[in-house]
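dumping this here so i dont lose it
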Protein backbone atom coordinates (compact mmCIF):
# COMPACT_ATOMS: atom_id res chain seq x y z
CA UNK A 1 0.00 0.00 0.00
CA UNK A 2 1.25 3.49 -0.88
CA UNK A 3 0.17 6.74 0.76
CA UNK A 4 -2.44 7.38 -1.94
CA UNK A 5 -3.40 3.94 -3.29
CA UNK A 6 -4.25 0.56 -1.79
CA UNK A 7 -3.07 -2.42 -3.86
CA UNK A 8 -4.67 -5.86 -3.89
CA UNK A 9 -2.49 -8.26 -5.87
CA UNK A 10 -3.28 -11.70 -7.22
CA UNK A 11 -7.06 -11.75 -6.77
CA UNK A 12 -8.47 -14.88 -8.44
CA UNK A 13 -11.45 -14.04 -10.63
CA UNK A 14 -11.81 -17.30 -12.58
CA UNK A 15 -10.66 -20.90 -12.50
CA UNK A 16 -9.97 -22.56 -15.85
CA UNK A 17 -8.81 -26.08 -16.71
CA UNK A 18 -5.31 -24.70 -17.27
CA UNK A 19 -5.16 -22.70 -14.05
CA UNK A 20 -6.40 -19.71 -12.09
CA UNK A 21 -6.83 -16.30 -13.68
CA UNK A 22 -5.95 -13.35 -11.49
CA UNK A 23 -6.16 -9.58 -11.44
CA UNK A 24 -4.44 -6.78 -9.54
CA UNK A 25 -6.55 -3.94 -8.18
CA UNK A 26 -5.31 -0.41 -7.45
CA UNK A 27 -7.68 1.70 -5.35
CA UNK A 28 -7.29 5.44 -4.74
CA UNK A 29 -8.31 6.71 -1.33
CA UNK A 30 -11.57 8.31 -2.45
CA UNK A 31 -15.26 7.48 -2.32
CA UNK A 32 -16.52 5.17 -5.08
CA UNK A 33 -13.97 5.99 -7.80
CA UNK A 34 -14.85 4.84 -11.32
CA UNK A 35 -13.15 1.74 -12.70
CA UNK A 36 -10.64 1.28 -15.53
CA UNK A 37 -9.88 -2.28 -16.67
CA UNK A 38 -6.42 -2.63 -18.22
CA UNK A 39 -5.72 -5.39 -20.76
CA UNK A 40 -2.03 -5.97 -21.41
CA UNK A 41 -0.37 -6.55 -24.77
CA UNK A 42 2.11 -9.19 -25.85
CA UNK A 43 0.75 -10.52 -29.12
CA UNK A 44 -1.98 -12.56 -27.37
CA UNK A 45 0.80 -15.03 -26.52
CA UNK A 46 3.26 -13.32 -24.16
CA UNK A 47 3.61 -11.00 -21.16
CA UNK A 48 1.55 -10.79 -17.96
CA UNK A 49 -0.78 -8.36 -16.22
CA UNK A 50 2.30 -6.60 -14.76
CA UNK A 51 2.83 -5.16 -18.25
CA UNK A 52 1.00 -1.94 -17.41
CA UNK A 53 2.12 1.70 -17.16
CA UNK A 54 2.55 2.66 -13.48
CA UNK A 55 -0.94 1.77 -12.20
CA UNK A 56 -0.43 3.19 -8.72
CA UNK A 57 0.53 6.58 -10.13
CA UNK A 58 -2.38 6.78 -12.54
CA UNK A 59 -4.93 5.41 -10.08
CA UNK A 60 -3.95 8.33 -7.84
CA UNK A 61 -3.56 10.98 -10.57
CA UNK A 62 -6.83 10.12 -12.32
CA UNK A 63 -8.74 9.21 -9.13
CA UNK A 64 -9.81 5.94 -10.77
CA UNK A 65 -9.65 2.37 -9.58
CA UNK A 66 -7.51 0.38 -12.01
CA UNK A 67 -7.74 -3.39 -12.45
CA UNK A 68 -5.02 -5.08 -14.52
CA UNK A 69 -6.32 -8.46 -15.61
CA UNK A 70 -4.75 -11.70 -16.76
CA UNK A 71 -6.35 -13.65 -19.59
CA UNK A 72 -5.51 -17.00 -21.14
CA UNK A 73 -2.60 -16.62 -23.54
CA UNK A 74 -2.45 -18.36 -26.89
CA UNK A 75 -0.93 -21.83 -26.95
CA UNK A 76 1.76 -22.19 -29.63
CA UNK A 77 2.47 -25.62 -31.12
CA UNK A 78 6.03 -26.76 -31.67
CA UNK A 79 7.43 -25.25 -34.83
CA UNK A 80 4.94 -22.38 -34.95
CA UNK A 81 6.16 -19.23 -36.65
CA UNK A 82 5.71 -17.30 -33.39
CA UNK A 83 7.57 -19.78 -31.22
CA UNK A 84 10.20 -17.15 -30.36
CA UNK A 85 7.56 -15.20 -28.42
CA UNK A 86 6.44 -18.23 -26.45
CA UNK A 87 7.83 -18.23 -22.91
CA UNK A 88 7.31 -21.61 -21.23
CA UNK A 89 8.09 -19.96 -17.89
CA UNK A 90 5.12 -17.59 -18.12
CA UNK A 91 2.73 -18.72 -15.34
CA UNK A 92 -0.41 -17.44 -17.11
CA UNK A 93 -2.84 -20.21 -18.14
CA UNK A 94 -3.06 -20.86 -21.87
CA UNK A 95 -5.81 -21.61 -24.33
CA UNK A 96 -7.05 -20.73 -27.80
CA UNK A 97 -9.03 -17.77 -29.11
CA UNK A 98 -11.70 -16.75 -28.16
CA UNK A 99 -10.54 -17.74 -24.65
CA UNK A 100 -8.71 -14.38 -24.39
CA UNK A 101 -11.94 -12.46 -25.01
CA UNK A 102 -14.01 -14.76 -22.80
CA UNK A 103 -11.63 -14.06 -19.91
CA UNK A 104 -11.61 -10.28 -20.33
CA UNK A 105 -15.40 -10.25 -20.26
CA UNK A 106 -15.38 -12.58 -17.24
CA UNK A 107 -13.07 -10.17 -15.41
CA UNK A 108 -15.40 -7.26 -16.17
CA UNK A 109 -18.41 -9.15 -14.85
CA UNK A 110 -16.47 -10.29 -11.74
CA UNK A 111 -15.39 -6.71 -11.07
CA UNK A 112 -18.99 -5.57 -11.25
CA UNK A 113 -20.06 -8.31 -8.87
CA UNK A 114 -17.42 -7.31 -6.29
CA UNK A 115 -17.62 -3.51 -6.52
CA UNK A 116 -19.18 -3.12 -3.07
CA UNK A 117 -16.55 -5.35 -1.50
CA UNK A 118 -13.68 -3.14 -2.73
CA UNK A 119 -15.51 0.23 -2.74
CA UNK A 120 -15.33 1.38 -6.36
CA UNK A 121 -18.09 2.35 -8.77
CA UNK A 122 -18.61 -0.26 -11.50
CA UNK A 123 -21.72 1.28 -13.05
CA UNK A 124 -19.52 2.98 -15.66
CA UNK A 125 -16.37 1.07 -16.71
CA UNK A 126 -13.64 2.01 -19.16
CA UNK A 127 -11.47 -0.61 -20.85
CA UNK A 128 -7.88 0.35 -21.72
CA UNK A 129 -5.54 -1.86 -23.70
CA UNK A 130 -2.39 -1.81 -25.80
CA UNK A 131 -1.63 -3.79 -28.97
CA UNK A 132 -3.21 -7.24 -28.48
CA UNK A 133 -4.75 -5.78 -25.33
CA UNK A 134 -6.05 -2.90 -27.43
CA UNK A 135 -7.77 -5.42 -29.67
CA UNK A 136 -9.38 -7.14 -26.68
CA UNK A 137 -10.38 -3.82 -25.09
CA UNK A 138 -11.99 -2.62 -28.32
CA UNK A 139 -13.75 -5.95 -28.74
CA UNK A 140 -15.00 -5.76 -25.15
CA UNK A 141 -16.40 -2.31 -25.92
CA UNK A 142 -18.31 -3.13 -29.10
CA UNK A 143 -19.53 -6.64 -28.16
CA UNK A 144 -21.83 -6.62 -25.13
CA UNK A 145 -20.77 -10.06 -23.94
CA UNK A 146 -19.16 -13.24 -25.21
CA UNK A 147 -22.37 -14.78 -26.53
CA UNK A 148 -22.65 -11.87 -28.99
CA UNK A 149 -19.28 -12.46 -30.66
CA UNK A 150 -20.77 -14.33 -33.63
CA UNK A 151 -21.82 -17.67 -35.06
CA UNK A 152 -18.24 -18.60 -35.94
CA UNK A 153 -17.45 -18.80 -32.21
CA UNK A 154 -20.85 -19.84 -30.84
CA UNK A 155 -19.64 -23.24 -29.60
CA UNK A 156 -16.52 -21.77 -27.94
CA UNK A 157 -17.96 -19.18 -25.57
CA UNK A 158 -19.61 -19.56 -22.19
CA UNK A 159 -20.42 -17.25 -19.29
CA UNK A 160 -19.33 -19.08 -16.15
CA UNK A 161 -18.15 -16.13 -14.03
CA UNK A 162 -20.77 -13.79 -12.52
CA UNK A 163 -23.17 -14.60 -15.39
CA UNK A 164 -25.89 -12.32 -14.03
CA UNK A 165 -23.68 -9.23 -14.26
CA UNK A 166 -23.24 -7.06 -17.34
CA UNK A 167 -20.03 -7.44 -19.34
CA UNK A 168 -20.52 -4.12 -21.14
CA UNK A 169 -18.11 -1.20 -20.87
CA UNK A 170 -18.96 2.46 -21.31
CA UNK A 171 -15.71 3.78 -22.80
CA UNK A 172 -12.47 2.44 -24.28
CA UNK A 173 -8.89 3.61 -24.73
CA UNK A 174 -6.87 1.75 -27.36
CA UNK A 175 -3.14 2.13 -27.84
CA UNK A 176 -2.13 0.77 -31.27
CA UNK A 177 -4.77 -1.96 -31.06
CA UNK A 178 -5.55 -4.43 -33.85
CA UNK A 179 -9.06 -3.56 -35.02
CA UNK A 180 -9.52 -5.30 -38.38
CA UNK A 181 -8.15 -8.80 -38.89
CA UNK A 182 -9.15 -8.70 -42.56
CA UNK A 183 -6.14 -6.43 -43.12
CA UNK A 184 -3.91 -9.47 -42.61
CA UNK A 185 -2.47 -10.84 -45.86
CA UNK A 186 -3.88 -14.21 -46.81
CA UNK A 187 -1.85 -17.42 -46.57
CA UNK A 188 0.86 -15.97 -44.32
CA UNK A 189 2.07 -17.28 -40.99
CA UNK A 190 1.92 -15.18 -37.86
CA UNK A 191 0.02 -14.35 -34.71
CA UNK A 192 -3.42 -13.70 -36.16
CA UNK A 193 -3.52 -16.87 -38.32
CA UNK A 194 -2.45 -18.76 -35.19
CA UNK A 195 -5.31 -17.14 -33.24
CA UNK A 196 -7.85 -17.84 -35.96
CA UNK A 197 -6.76 -21.43 -36.57
CA UNK A 198 -5.69 -20.83 -40.16
CA UNK A 199 -5.62 -18.32 -42.98
CA UNK A 200 -8.18 -15.66 -43.80
CA UNK A 201 -9.40 -17.53 -46.87
CA UNK A 202 -9.93 -20.65 -44.76
CA UNK A 203 -11.84 -18.87 -41.98
CA UNK A 204 -13.33 -15.60 -43.33
CA UNK A 205 -16.12 -15.51 -40.72
CA UNK A 206 -13.73 -15.98 -37.80
CA UNK A 207 -11.49 -13.17 -39.07
CA UNK A 208 -14.46 -10.83 -39.50
CA UNK A 209 -16.19 -11.64 -36.20
CA UNK A 210 -12.95 -11.39 -34.20
CA UNK A 211 -12.43 -7.88 -35.62
CA UNK A 212 -13.75 -5.04 -33.43
CA UNK A 213 -14.53 -2.92 -36.52
CA UNK A 214 -17.17 -5.47 -37.57
CA UNK A 215 -19.23 -4.87 -34.44
CA UNK A 216 -19.35 -1.05 -34.33
CA UNK A 217 -22.93 0.25 -34.14
CA UNK A 218 -24.65 3.45 -33.09
CA UNK A 219 -24.84 1.93 -29.58
CA UNK A 220 -21.06 1.53 -29.24
CA UNK A 221 -19.37 3.55 -26.46
CA UNK A 222 -17.00 6.50 -27.05
CA UNK A 223 -13.44 5.65 -28.00
CA UNK A 224 -10.00 7.23 -27.59
CA UNK A 225 -7.49 5.87 -30.12
CA UNK A 226 -3.73 6.49 -30.08
CA UNK A 227 -1.48 4.98 -32.77
CA UNK A 228 1.96 5.60 -34.26
CA UNK A 229 1.96 6.40 -37.97
CA UNK A 230 5.09 4.27 -38.50
CA UNK A 231 3.88 1.23 -36.53
CA UNK A 232 5.48 -1.88 -38.03
CA UNK A 233 3.72 -4.34 -35.72
CA UNK A 234 0.08 -3.19 -35.94
CA UNK A 235 -0.39 -0.97 -38.98
CA UNK A 236 -2.00 2.40 -38.28
CA UNK A 237 -4.64 1.42 -40.87
CA UNK A 238 -6.32 -0.57 -38.07
CA UNK A 239 -7.11 2.60 -36.13
CA UNK A 240 -8.03 4.50 -39.29
CA UNK A 241 -10.62 1.87 -40.19
CA UNK A 242 -12.01 1.78 -36.67
CA UNK A 243 -12.29 5.56 -36.47
CA UNK A 244 -14.03 5.65 -39.85
CA UNK A 245 -16.52 3.07 -38.56
CA UNK A 246 -17.19 5.24 -35.49
CA UNK A 247 -17.88 8.26 -37.68
CA UNK A 248 -20.17 6.27 -39.96
CA UNK A 249 -22.13 4.94 -36.96
CA UNK A 250 -22.43 8.33 -35.27
CA UNK A 251 -20.26 7.37 -32.28
CA UNK A 252 -18.01 9.88 -30.52
CA UNK A 253 -14.29 9.27 -30.81
CA UNK A 254 -10.88 10.92 -30.80
CA UNK A 255 -7.96 9.55 -32.82
CA UNK A 256 -4.38 10.65 -32.14
CA UNK A 257 -1.97 9.67 -34.92
CA UNK A 258 1.59 10.19 -33.77
CA UNK A 259 3.97 11.02 -36.59
CA UNK A 260 7.25 9.07 -36.90
CA UNK A 261 6.45 6.78 -33.96
CA UNK A 262 6.47 3.00 -34.11
CA UNK A 263 4.91 0.39 -31.82
CA UNK A 264 4.96 1.16 -28.07
CA UNK A 265 5.84 4.79 -28.92
CA UNK A 266 9.42 4.13 -30.05
CA UNK A 267 11.00 5.36 -33.28
CA UNK A 268 12.81 2.10 -34.04
CA UNK A 269 11.02 -1.22 -33.57
CA UNK A 270 14.28 -2.68 -32.25
CA UNK A 271 13.97 -0.37 -29.21
CA UNK A 272 10.65 -1.79 -27.97
CA UNK A 273 10.78 -2.66 -24.27
CA UNK A 274 7.34 -3.01 -22.67
CA UNK A 275 4.15 -1.14 -21.97
CA UNK A 276 5.45 -0.36 -18.51
CA UNK A 277 7.49 2.50 -19.99
CA UNK A 278 5.08 3.48 -22.78
CA UNK A 279 3.37 6.31 -20.89
CA UNK A 280 6.76 7.72 -19.88
CA UNK A 281 7.75 7.82 -23.55
CA UNK A 282 4.58 9.74 -24.44
CA UNK A 283 4.87 12.14 -21.52
CA UNK A 284 8.56 12.79 -22.16
CA UNK A 285 7.83 14.56 -25.45
CA UNK A 286 4.32 16.06 -25.35
CA UNK A 287 5.15 18.28 -28.34
CA UNK A 288 5.81 15.33 -30.64
CA UNK A 289 4.17 15.88 -34.03
CA UNK A 290 0.68 14.40 -34.06
CA UNK A 291 -2.58 14.66 -35.96
CA UNK A 292 -5.89 14.56 -34.10
CA UNK A 293 -9.25 13.62 -35.59
CA UNK A 294 -12.53 14.06 -33.74
CA UNK A 295 -15.91 12.47 -34.29
CA UNK A 296 -18.44 14.40 -32.21
CA UNK A 297 -22.17 13.89 -32.53
CA UNK A 298 -25.19 15.40 -30.84
CA UNK A 299 -28.48 13.74 -30.11
CA UNK A 300 -31.48 15.28 -31.82
CA UNK A 301 -32.14 18.65 -30.24
CA UNK A 302 -28.92 18.49 -28.21
CA UNK A 303 -25.65 20.38 -28.45
CA UNK A 304 -22.21 19.08 -29.36
CA UNK A 305 -20.06 18.13 -26.39
CA UNK A 306 -16.52 17.18 -27.43
CA UNK A 307 -14.82 14.33 -25.60
CA UNK A 308 -11.68 16.40 -25.02
CA UNK A 309 -12.23 20.09 -24.46
CA UNK A 310 -8.82 21.42 -25.49
CA UNK A 311 -7.19 18.42 -27.21
CA UNK A 312 -4.11 18.03 -24.99
CA UNK A 313 -1.16 16.08 -26.44
CA UNK A 314 -1.42 12.29 -26.51
CA UNK A 315 -0.57 11.10 -23.03
CA UNK A 316 -1.89 10.92 -19.47
CA UNK A 317 -3.73 14.26 -19.54
CA UNK A 318 -5.69 13.28 -22.65
CA UNK A 319 -6.66 9.95 -21.10
CA UNK A 320 -7.69 11.64 -17.86
CA UNK A 321 -9.91 14.15 -19.71
CA UNK A 322 -11.47 11.30 -21.69
CA UNK A 323 -12.20 9.29 -18.53
CA UNK A 324 -13.62 12.34 -16.77
CA UNK A 325 -15.93 12.95 -19.72
CA UNK A 326 -17.10 9.36 -20.17
CA UNK A 327 -17.20 7.42 -16.88
CA UNK A 328 -17.24 10.00 -14.10
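and the seq i came up w/
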Amino acid sequence: MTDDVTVHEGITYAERETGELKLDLYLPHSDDPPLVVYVHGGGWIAETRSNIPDPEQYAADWDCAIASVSYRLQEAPDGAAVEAMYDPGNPTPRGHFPDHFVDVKAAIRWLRAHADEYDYDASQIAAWGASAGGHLALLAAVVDDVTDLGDAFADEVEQTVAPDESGAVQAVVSWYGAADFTLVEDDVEGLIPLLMGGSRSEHPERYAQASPVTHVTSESPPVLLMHGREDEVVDVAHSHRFFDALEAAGVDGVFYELHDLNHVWVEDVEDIESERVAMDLLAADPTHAQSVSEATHAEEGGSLAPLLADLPPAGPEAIQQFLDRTIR
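The domain at 5-326 is CATH 3.40.50.1820 (Rossmann fold).
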